[in-house]
Amino acid sequence: MTDPILKARGLVKRYGRVTALDRCDFDLMPGEILAVIGDNGAGKSTLIKAISGAVVPDEGNIWLDGKPVSFSSPIQARDHGIETVYQTLAMSPALSIADNMFMGRELRRPGWRGKVLRQLDRPKMEEIARQKLSDLGLMTIQNINQAVETLSGGQRQGVAVARAAAFGSRVIILDEPTAALGVKESRRVLELILDVKSRGIPIILISHNMPHVFEVADRIHVHRLGRRLCVIDPKNHTMSDAVAYMTGAETPPEVLQPA
Amino acid sequence: MSKTENYEARLSGASSEVASFDEHEKGLFGRLHHLLHTTPALVPLIVLVTAIVIFGLVLGSKFFSPFALTLILQQVQIVGVLAAAQSLIILTAGIDLSVGAIAVLCSVVMGKFTFDYGLPPFIAVVLGLTVGTAIGGLNGWLVSKVKLPPFIVTLGMWQIVLAANYLYSANETIRSQDIEEQAPFLQFLGTTFDIGGARLTLGVVAMVVLVAALAYALRATAWGRHVYAVGDDPEAAELAGVSVHRTLMSVYMLVGFICALAGWVMIGRFGSVSPSATTGVIGNIQAITAVVIGGISLFGGRGSILGAFFGALIVGVFELGLRMAGANPQWTFLLIGVLIIGAVAVDQWIRKVSA
Fold first, then answer.
1. Which of A144, B8, B61, B314 is the most buried (most CB within 10 A)?
2. Does A187 contact B222 at a Cβ distance shorter than 8 Å?
3. Residues A103, B22: C-beta atoms closer than 8 Å
4. Residue A100 vs residues A71, A150, B146, B152, B233: alpha-carbon distances, Å
C-alpha cells in the first residue's frame, strides 16, 4: 500500500467548551480525489482549516509526504504546495484576472527594472495566466485584464481553481466549489476538477452535493461529531448510505481505512 | 434514483459556452461605461479640460496664459501633495483627517530645529520628515493592530498633532526674512524658475514627481497591487497571501512622510514657518475634496492617484478663474460642492458593472 501524501493523526481543536475536532484522523492518497462530507457542525471546515493552515490545532500531528509539518498560516501551507480555493474565492473584485492569479506572489521583471524599480513583469504574468486558464479549458478568454467582478460565478470559480492548479504542486483543497453555481457552471467546475486530477495532483473536495461527490470522488471521508467516522468507496455505497452514516441514522458496516 | 443522478446528462445538448469571456457588443454608451470603469481618472480629466477651455473662452488671454496656468499649479501645490497622501489612505478604504495637521507640525519642527537648536537646515528637514513618518506609523499601528476605525484614529490624531503644534511652537511664526538670511535651504522648494512665461517652483516639480512616482508604484509594482487588494477586500487579500498589516503600515508611514514633505513645500510657498497656517485646520478637507472630485472611491480599492491630482487642479482652476472673473468667492465653494456630489454620483454609476 502506498503512503498517504497528507496524513493527520489525533487532531484536536476546541473553541471554548465546543470540541470541533475530537482526535480526528485524516489521509489523502497520491493522485486521488477525496471528498469530505459531513453534516453542518460536524467539524469539516475546522478539519480543512487545520490542514490548510488557517487554524492551528490544539493537539495532533500532520505529515506531508511523510515529513511532519505544522502550519501557522495559510501562506506557510502554500509554501509547502498546499493550495486552497475558499468558498469566498479570496479574490479582489476590482483587480484583473492576472492580478488576482498572482496576488501575493507577483513576478518581477528581470534585470534592473525589477530590482531597482521593482517593476512587475506584466507580459509574463499575463502569458502564464492565459496559459493556465486555457490549460483548464477556459479557452475563450478575450481579455486577461478584465476585472474579476465582471465575470460570472462560474468564471470566477474557474479562475480560482486555475490559480490553485497553477501553484498547488502537492495538494489542492476545494471548499464547496459548486455551492453557489448553476447546473451548467457546476458541470464545468467538475470537469475542471477531473482535469486537475488527471495531472496527478490530489484534491480534497468539501461538498454537500451528493451527486457531485459520488461522481468525481475516489474515496469519501465521512465526518461525524468532530472525527472521521469512516472512509467509503463510492462504488460500493449509495448516496443514501452516505447520508445515513453522516447523520448517524446508520452505522457503517465496514471501515475501508485501517484505523 | 437514476433519474436524479442523470439530470445533468441533458446538458450535453445545451450550449457549452459557459466560460467564454467574449465581449458582446455593448453600444457606444456601454463602451463609454467600460472605458470609465478601466480608466477612472478620465472623468476628472474631462472636467479639468472643460473648465480650462470655458474659463479660457470667457476670460481670454488673461486666464489662458502660461503665467496664469502655472500660477494655478503654484496655488495647488500644498493641497496637491496632501491629496496624493490622502489618495493612498482612501485606496485602502481608510480616511486621514490628520494630513494637514501633520504637515504644519512638521514645518514647525523643521523651523524650530534649525532656529532653536541650531541644527543644520538639511538635518532639520530630515528630522521633520522623520517626525511625519513616525506619526503616520502611529496612525497605521492604531488602525492595523489595534483595529480602530481610521476615521476615529485620525480624528483624534488631528487634534493631538494640531495642539502639539501650538504648544511646541507657542504659536510663534518664524519670519520669512530670518529664514532667507539664516537657513535658505528651508525655502528650497520655493525656488522659482521661468520657462517662457511660465513660472514654476521646485515645490510644483516635487508635487508632479511625487504624483508620477506614486502612480507608477501603484500601477506597476506588487506593493501597489497589494494596496488596491487590501482596500478592495482585506480578508480576500490576506487569504491570497498579502500581508495586510505590512501593507497598511507601509501606506500610513509613507503618508506621514508625504505630509511632512507638504510641510516643507509650505515653507517654500509661504516663505515663513507659521503654526497657525490654515492647512492645519482645513488641509484634510481640501485633500479629501480633491480625492473625491478625482473619482477615487471612498469605499477603497478603486480610482487612480492621477484623478486626485486632476481633482486638486480642478479646484485650483475654479478658484483662480472665478476670482479673475470677479465673482464672489462663495461661488467657488458652491461649485465645488456640486462637483463633489456629481463626482460621487458618477463613481456609483461606474461601479455598477454592466452585464
1. B314
2. no
3. no
4. 23, 13, 28, 31, 12
What are the residue ranges of CATH 3.40.50.300 in chain A?
A: 6-94+151-247
CATH code for residues B43-349:
1.10.3470
Minimal CA–CA distance to A222: which of A190, A196, A250? A250
How far apart, in whole angstroms, are the C-alpha atoms of residue B26 and residue B34? 9
Cα→Cα distances B93→B210, B248, B313, Å:
21, 10, 23
What are the structural domain ranges in chain B?
43-349
Q: Which of B1, B8, B232 is the closest to A95 by Cβ? A: B232
pLDDT, averaged in runs of 10, over chain A (259 residues): 87 89 91 90 86 89 91 86 87 89 88 86 88 73 78 83 84 87 82 87 91 92 89 89 86 59
Q: For residue range B50-67, what is the model confidence (pLDDT) as tens digits?
A: 999 999 999 988 888 888
Please indicate if any CB of chain B lies within 8 Å of the CB of A104. yes
Of the candidates B191, B199, B204, B201, the one whose C-alpha atom is nearest the C-alpha of residue B78 is B204
In terms of DSSP H, where are the helices of chain B?
2-5, 27-38, 42-59, 66-91, 99-115, 121-144, 150-169, 176-182, 202-220, 222-232, 234-239, 244-270, 279-293, 305-324, 330-351
- Whether B23 contacts chain A with CB within 8 A: yes
